[in-house]
Amino acid sequence: MLVSLAWLTALVAGVFAILIGQRKCFPYFWKDIFFLAKVARYGIRLEIYKKTSKVVTVLDRFVQQAARIPNKPFIIYEGITYTYRDIDERSNKVAQVFEKLGTVKKGDTVALLMSNEPDFVCVWFGLNKLGCSVAFLNTNIKSKSLLHCFNCCGAKILVVGADLLGTLEDILPSLQEDSIQVWAMKKESSHPGVHTLLDKLEQSSELPIPSDRRATTSLKTPTLYIFTSGTTGLPKAAVITHLQSLKAAGGFWAFGGTRDDMVYIALPLYHSAASLIGIGGTVELGATCVLKKKFSASQFWNDCKKYNVTIFQYIGELCRYLCNQPKAEGEKDHKVRMAVGNGLRQDVWREFHRRFGEIRMCEVYGSTEGNICFMNHNGRIGAVGRSTCLYKLFFKYDLVKYDMVKDEPIRNEQGFCERVRSGETGLLVSKISTQSPFFGYAGSKQQTEKKLLRDVFVKGDMYFNTGDLMAEDEEDFISFKDRVGDTFRWKGENVATTEVTEILGLVDFIQEANVYGVEVPGNEGRAGMAAVIVRPGFEFDGKKLFDHVLRDLPSYARPLFIRIQESMEMTGTFKQQKFGLVKSGFNPSTISDPLYFLDNAEKCYVPLSGDVYDSIVNGQRKL
Hints:
Elements: H1 2-25, H2 29-52, H3 58-68, E1 73-77, E2 80-83, H4 84-101, E3 109-113, H5 118-129, E4 133-136, H6 143-153, E5 157-160, H7 172-177, E6 181-184, E7 194-196, H8 198-203, E8 222-228, E9 236-241, H9 242-249, H10 251-254, E10 262-265, H11 272-285, E11 288-291, H12 297-306, E12 311-315, H13 316-323, E13 338-342, H14 346-356, E14 360-365, E15 374-375, E16 385-386, H15 389-394, E17 397-400, E18 402-403, E19 408-409, E20 425-431, H16 445-450, E21 452-454, E22 462-472, E23 477-483, E24 487-490, E25 493-496, H17 497-504, E26 510-518, E27 527-534, H18 542-552, E28 561-564, H19 579-584, E29 595-599, E30 604-607, H20 610-617
Parallel strand pairs: 1-11, 3-4, 3-5, 4-8, 5-6, 6-7, 10-11, 10-12, 12-13, 13-14, 27-28
Antiparallel strand pairs: 1-2, 8-9, 14-15, 16-23, 17-20, 18-19, 20-22, 21-22, 22-23, 24-25, 26-27, 28-29, 29-30
Helix pairs in contact: 4-5, 9-11, 13-14
C-alpha cells in the first residue's frame, strides 16, 4: 500500500514537473496544438473534396444554411434585416433573369461594380448559381483601369450599382463598342443601351436553378476574380478558386467564431477580406453580419452596441481612426470579443486595448492571390502569426536575404538564395506545391511569371514571391516589416507606382516621374510621393497637377508629396532608384530639392514649408 502511494505521489510529481517545464519552455504548446487541430480538421474536409470530386462550395454551404435556418437573419443593412431565405430567394431571382434572357452560360465571367449593399451578395450568389464566375471591380478605379479589367477576365457583362452608374458615363461608348452589356440596379435608365435589372427582378421567379448548373468537381475551378494592384501599373485579376474561397471561409471558425456571433463588416466587399473571409465566414458559421455601406468611425461603436456585435473585421487604418476619435464615456460598454484583420501597428494595438477593452485581435496575413497564410491565434501584439514545426511540415516557406538597392533577392556564388538568421528581416517566399498552389492572374501569363522565383534553394524548385519583408523571432512569431518593389499600401489600398507614374507622365510639364511611398508619423502604410523632372521650357504648375490627379487617380493613389529633381538616379539595369528617395522622406530641412504638398483646401500642390511639414508630422493636418 505504501509502495503504491509512493508510486502515485511520484507520478503526480512527475506530471506536475512536466507541466511546469512545458509552461516554461513551450508556453504556447497547447494553444498551438488545439488551433492546428482545428485547421487540420478543416483541411481534411478539403482533401476529401479532392479525392471524391464532390466539392461543397461556399455557395452550396449557403444554400444548405438557407434550408436549415431560413428565418435567421443573414444580413442587417441600414436597419433592415434580410434572412437567409430572403437572400437565397433574391439570388434565385437574379439567376432566373439572366437564365431567361439567355445572356450567360456556365463558365462565363460577369463583372460586378457595386458598393456594399445586400444586392452585392444577391448578384454574386445568383450568378454563381448559373455556374458563372464573378469579377469584383474596385469602385475607386478610373476609366482606363476599368476598361483594362474587362480584358483581363474576359467579362462581357457588367452589373453596376445604381449609385455608380454615373461614374461610367465617359467609358460607356467604349464598353458598348466592345460588345459589353451593362446592367444597372435600377428600374429605369436614361443612359442609352444600359439595361435595367430591378424592374425585371420584380417579375422574376424565386424558384431555384438546378444545382447541377453550379456544381463543380474540382477545387481548382475559378469562382471569382478579385483585382489587386501590382507592379504592372494596372489592376491584376487574381484568380480565386473554390479552394481559396473555402479556406478563407474557415477563418472565423478557426479563431473560435460560432453561429451565435454577430459580425460587423464595414470593409468594401470587392476586397477579399470582406467577401471571402467576412461573407464566406458568416455563411460557414450560419451567423449574422451587419453590413455597412461605408466605414464610419463616429458610428462604429454605436452600431456595435445597437446590433450586439461580437466580431468585427478591420484593417490597421480602421483601428487607428477609432483610436483618434474623441474619448467618450462607456467606450468599453459593448459585446465585441474578437476582431479579425491585418495591418495593425503595435502602438495602435495597445491603444485600442486601453481604450476599448481586451478585445481579442486576430491578425491574419495573406495576399489575395498568394499561397501562404499566417494566423495570429496567440494574440501576440505586433505579430501576424506563429509558425511551429507542424505548420512548416505542411507549408514550406522561407525568409531570404533581399537587396533593397537592387530590389531583388540576394543570390550566392552558386546562384541560390540564402536564408536569413532568426530575428533578421527577409523576403517571404512560399514553395508552390499541391498543398499550396498558386493560380496566378487571369489574362496575364507575364504578371503570373513575375510572382515566381525559380531555383531558389535547389535547381528546379519554384516559390511564390510575396513581395513582403518579414522577420521571425526566437519564439517563431512572425512580424510584417515592409513591402518591396513597385507597390505600397495607403488608406487600406495597394498603390501601383507604375500606374501613378503613367498618369503623371500625361501632364505636359512632367518629363519623368518616379513614384514611391514614404512613412508619415502616426499613419499606417506609406503615403504617395513622386520625384519628377520638369520638362525643359516648362515650369511646375501645382494647380494643373492637382486637377490632373484629382480627375484621373483615386484618392488613395494621389501623390501627397512632390519632389522636383534635375536628374533621376538609376540602377545598373536602368531601373529608377527608389531606395534613397524612400529613405530621405519628405523633410524640407534635410532635402535641398523643391518640395510640394497636395493641399485639398487650396486645391493645389503648394510649397512644402517647415510649418506645413510640422503640421503633418504632428497630426494637425488631415491627410
